[in-house]
Amino acid sequence: MPSSWLEAARNGDLAELRRRRTPEQYRAWYPAFADSGLVVPSWPTKYGGLGVSEEVAQVVNEVTSAVGLVRLNVIGLGLAGPTLLSLGSEEQRERFLLPLVRNDEIWCQLFSEPGAGSDLASLATRASREGDCWVLNGQKVWSSFAHEARFGLTLARTNPRLPKHKGITFFITDLNAPGVTVRPLRKMSGDSEFNEVFLDDVQVPDSNRVGDVGDGWRVALQTLSHERTMLSGAGSGMRDRTSGRSIERVLQLALAGAGQADSPWMEPGVRQRLATLWIEETVLRLTNLRASQARQRGEQAGAEGSIKKLFQSEHNQRLQECALDLLGARALAWHEDDNDAGRVVFGFLRSRGDTIAGGTSEIQRNVLGERILGLPKDPYDLRDVPWNELPR
Q1: Which residue of 82, 100, 101, 321 has the smallest Cβ count within 10 Å?
Q2: What is the spatial distance between Cα 301 and Cα 21, in angstroms, rounded to a whole number?
Q3: Which residue of the set 105, 113, 227, 280 is catalytic?
Q4: Which CATH superfamily includes the segment(s) 231-372?
């Protein structure tokens, strides 16, 4: 790292680090981070990693995060890469993984649709075979980073006469292809991180199909499990871009002015609240470490990902609310130079979507009830009805 960045990071002065390292400078330098293998240390070396164990990778992630090294291309690293490593072809891994790690090609996810969000298997985007290509038509929505992305993980229906879970195929779509239109959506936090995407006669080569024709739901379940891991907070390696203030930063906020009579740290209720949040964060970190070790042993991700995602999303909302409360009046109105307050408020607003993105908390509880607790499915279950006969 440039010495000036490292000095500011080791001093814990994030405001100074942001002054010394602009986003443009960081992106320009980022390939050096990627080429070191430290971005994805547990991946095989031929795909940009170091081939180390998950235990070592966890230490790498902690050390690099401590000096301000944020991982870019979070959808690529968290969803596309793991999916291709487990279910993609060797040709796909060789073509896509190294540019993904270097942030040369950004990825997004084209799953949800206006009529298929929580009930994702109801998706209506169609893919028709024409020789060695597939022609895609439909609309996707809530696609984070699609306005920056080169490729999108795409679910499309290839056989409408089968039940909704069985007629889906998984594709890699080039967002630079003719017929792709991306429109940003403005969020309550003021930014436009996600988008709606229109696919009009978009051609996708069959070589960009992941898995067998009609087997897309099985591939998607793996991707969704990786997504829940990515959004699971401490130890996931992705938190810097998606989660707002960490427990360490919230503790620093509370300790500011410690010893003064009006310091929040002097309030027993505040200390208990912070202790509870610290315990939750520790539980998440250890749970993610166990999940990483299971993946290292070759075990497939399963419904336990819903436990991590459900707990992390609600924990992070509590964490960002605590940071907001500690700011007091600064959270309502702050000076334009008060970047720290602005970022705390942004993290709070951003966290409101945590219990929606990646599968709502209600859906996660359904998954846990059915697949882990063995509870019966919803009696109004249409999973065996052909998709083209479903009521809409």
Answers
A1: 321
A2: 37
A3: 227
A4: Butyryl-CoA Dehydrogenase, subunit A, domain 3 (1.20.140.10)
Please state which CATH class domain 107-215 belongs to. Answer: mainly beta
Instruction: Kindly list the averaged pLDDT for each block of 10 residues, start to end, along the chain of length 392.
Output: 93 84 96 97 96 89 91 95 96 98 97 91 96 97 95 98 96 98 91 93 98 96 80 48 74 81 84 95 86 74 78 94 91 83 90 88 91 86 88 81
* C-alpha separations of 182 from 19, 132, 173 in Å: 32, 26, 13
Cα dist from 147 to 41, 109, 192, 193, whole Å:
28, 12, 9, 8
Pairing state of beta strands 151-157 and 133-141? Answer: unpaired
* Whether residue 196 lies in the annotated active site: no
